[in-house]
């Protein structure tokens, strides 16, 4: 748990990067100075999120209930660390930081509430490809705020959108159920974009542990309300295997995936993290093919390649600018 128990940065605007130092907003990292352990942590984060979608598809429990338990367990594990070792930091958080952390929790709850059901309606490969399009929505949001991205970004946006249209259009020929899953996955990606934007702002001055504790607790509370209102069972009829899978999901996706990504973004930079997370799509598709026997139709692969290539252009162009 030492990877999540991290102190808040003491200087909000460092001028250069030393080993393990926090990057200034907009600064690009010198990867040669980044501690090797951070690259290992990022690799573990990618492996954790890649396992997430196939594991969720295999768990015999309601989708939103799975999301609740995932965040509830993560909050319970973080609670003693946050309340004992970071009590002073939590009390010292500004109203703005608390508000942004709560808002990030809202967006994360929306992300889970849409993405997990989508995995029951369409394939793991399709849902993951559409959900990981969060850099696309982030770029469009920043454009609305007045930022002017370079031309290469618009090329990437066009390519990614073409892939989304092609992928969703193909599912339209299969069933309306698959299209609904596609739309939920797209919505989940939009919510993930909001979660990442808000989280990156909070993480300038707040440690990983303090931020994730507030964010995960908010997400768990909202998902609990969603389960109660929708009548989803929170424990009835779950097999021991399902509980073990939920614990594995929490360990792999929540701690290895989300928390470690929040940890290393301070040193390797958001562009590098975003590029690495794109590996979730082929990773999840491979695991689903081997474990669940989900082999996407041949027509799906060109659309997935277009989406990933477009997102990669967006990320790389943003890094250059």
From TrEMBL:
<feature type="transmembrane region" description="Helical">
    <location>
        <begin position="243"/>
        <end position="260"/>
    </location>
</feature>
<dbReference type="InterPro" id="IPR000620">
    <property type="entry name" value="EamA_dom"/>
</dbReference>
<feature type="transmembrane region" description="Helical">
    <location>
        <begin position="39"/>
        <end position="61"/>
    </location>
</feature>
<feature type="compositionally biased region" description="Polar residues">
    <location>
        <begin position="1"/>
        <end position="20"/>
    </location>
</feature>
<feature type="transmembrane region" description="Helical">
    <location>
        <begin position="298"/>
        <end position="315"/>
    </location>
</feature>
<feature type="transmembrane region" description="Helical">
    <location>
        <begin position="97"/>
        <end position="115"/>
    </location>
</feature>
<keyword id="KW-1133">Transmembrane helix</keyword>
<feature type="transmembrane region" description="Helical">
    <location>
        <begin position="272"/>
        <end position="292"/>
    </location>
</feature>
<feature type="transmembrane region" description="Helical">
    <location>
        <begin position="67"/>
        <end position="85"/>
    </location>
</feature>
<feature type="transmembrane region" description="Helical">
    <location>
        <begin position="210"/>
        <end position="231"/>
    </location>
</feature>
<feature type="transmembrane region" description="Helical">
    <location>
        <begin position="121"/>
        <end position="140"/>
    </location>
</feature>
<keyword id="KW-0812">Transmembrane</keyword>
<comment type="similarity">
    <text>Belongs to the EamA transporter family.</text>
</comment>
<feature type="region of interest" description="Disordered">
    <location>
        <begin position="1"/>
        <end position="27"/>
    </location>
</feature>
<dbReference type="InterPro" id="IPR037185">
    <property type="entry name" value="EmrE-like"/>
</dbReference>
<keyword id="KW-0472">Membrane</keyword>
<protein>
    <submittedName>
        <fullName>Permease of the drug/metabolite transporter (DMT) superfamily</fullName>
    </submittedName>
</protein>
<feature type="transmembrane region" description="Helical">
    <location>
        <begin position="178"/>
        <end position="198"/>
    </location>
</feature>
<dbReference type="GO" id="GO:0016020">
    <property type="term" value="C:membrane"/>
</dbReference>
<feature type="domain" description="EamA">
    <location>
        <begin position="40"/>
        <end position="168"/>
    </location>
</feature>
<feature type="domain" description="EamA">
    <location>
        <begin position="180"/>
        <end position="315"/>
    </location>
</feature>
<feature type="transmembrane region" description="Helical">
    <location>
        <begin position="152"/>
        <end position="172"/>
    </location>
</feature>
<dbReference type="Pfam" id="PF00892">
    <property type="entry name" value="EamA"/>
</dbReference>
């Amino acid at each position: 748990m030492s990877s999540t128990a991290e102190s808040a940065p003491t200087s909000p605007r460092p001028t250069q990067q030393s080993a393990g130092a926090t990057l200034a907003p907009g600064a690009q990292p010198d990867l040669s100075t980044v501690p090797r352990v951070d690259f290992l942590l990022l690799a573990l984060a990618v492996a954790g999120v890649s396992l997430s979608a196939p594991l969720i598809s295999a768990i015999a429990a309601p989708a939103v209930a799975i999301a609740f338990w995932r965040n509830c367990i993560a909050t319970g594990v973080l609670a003693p660390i946050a309340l004992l070792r970071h009590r002073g930091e939590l009390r010292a958080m500004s109203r703005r930081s608390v508000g942004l952390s709560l808002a990030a929790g809202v967006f994360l709850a929306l992300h889970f509430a849409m993405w997990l059901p989508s995995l029951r309606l369409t394939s793991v490969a399709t849902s993951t490809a559409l959900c990981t399009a969060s850099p696309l929505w982030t770029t469009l949001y920043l454009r609305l705020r007045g930022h002017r991205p370079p031309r290469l970004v618009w090329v990437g946006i066009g390519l990614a959108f073409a892939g989304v249209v092609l992928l969703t259009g193909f599912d339209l020929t299969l069933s309306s159920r698959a299209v609904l899953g596609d739309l939920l996955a797209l919505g989940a990606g939009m919510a993930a974009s909001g979660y990442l934007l808000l989280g990156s702002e909070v993480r300038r001055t707040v440690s990983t542990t303090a931020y994730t504790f507030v964010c995960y607790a908010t997400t768990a509370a909202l998902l609990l309300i969603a389960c109660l209102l929708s009548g989803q069972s929170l424990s009835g009829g779950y097999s021991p295997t399902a509980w073990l899978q939920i614990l594995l999901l929490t360990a792999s996706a929540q701690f290895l995936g989300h928390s470690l990504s929040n940890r290393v973004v301070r040193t390797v930079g958001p562009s590098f993290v975003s590029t690495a997370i794109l590996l979730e799509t082929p990773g999840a598709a491979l695991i689903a093919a081997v474990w669940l026997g989900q082999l996407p139709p041949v027509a799906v692969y060109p659309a997935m390649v277009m989406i990933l290539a477009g997102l990669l252009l967006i990320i790389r162009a943003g890094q250059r600018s």
